[in-house]
């Protein structure tokens, strides 16, 4: 799969992760979509390391999308955790 396909999957995975975890994000939709791109790469790597599966089979393969969405949700949770902590420390 090419780089453009991974970017497209990541952007869509970021939107899906945002839909699964609604709420206010300090960065907005653009940052959420960029987290989706990084999450797609993270999900593909975790799938290969933890489960020994090749989650980069193809654009329309279910394992590719599950890995990208799972990675995006993980990064979104981490982003909310760390951005919430730093903003509370600045205002407190």
Question: In words, what does this structure look like?
Answer:
The protein is mainly alpha-helical. The chain has one domain. The protein is 78% helix and 0% strand. It has three helices and no strands. Helix 1 packs across helix 2, helix 1 packs across helix 3 and helix 2 crosses helix 3. The relative contact order is 0.20.
Number of helices: 3
**Cα-atom Rg, whole angstroms?**
14 Å
Distance between the termini: 47 Å
Q: What's the number of structural domains?
A: 1
Strand proportion? under 5%
Number of β-strand runs: 0
Shape summary: globular
SSE run: HHH
The chain-level structural class is mainly alpha
Q: Quick check: average pLDDT?
A: 76
Query: Which stretches are low in confidence, meaning pLDDT under 50 for 5 or more residues running?
Result: none
Helix content: over 70%
How is the biggest beta sheet arranged? none
Brief overview, please?
With 92 residues, the chain is an all-alpha fold. The protein has helices at residues 3-20, 28-51, 62-91. It has one domain (3-85).
Task: Label this structure with key terms.
single chain, mainly alpha, about 90 residues
Task: Compile the SSE list and pairings.
Blueprint: H1 3-20, H2 28-51, H3 62-91
């Amino acid at each position: 799969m090419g780089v453009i396909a991974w970017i497209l999957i990541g952007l869509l995975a970021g939107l899906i992760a945002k839909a699964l975890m609604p709420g206010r994000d300090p960065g907005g939709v653009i940052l959420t979509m960029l987290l989706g791109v990084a999450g797609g790469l993270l999900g593909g790597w975790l799938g290969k390391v933890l489960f020994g599966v090749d989650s980069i089979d193809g654009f329309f393969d279910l394992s590719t999308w599950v890995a990208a969405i799972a990675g995006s949700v993980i990064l979104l949770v981490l982003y909310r955790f760390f951005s919430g902590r730093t903003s509370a420390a600045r205002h407190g």
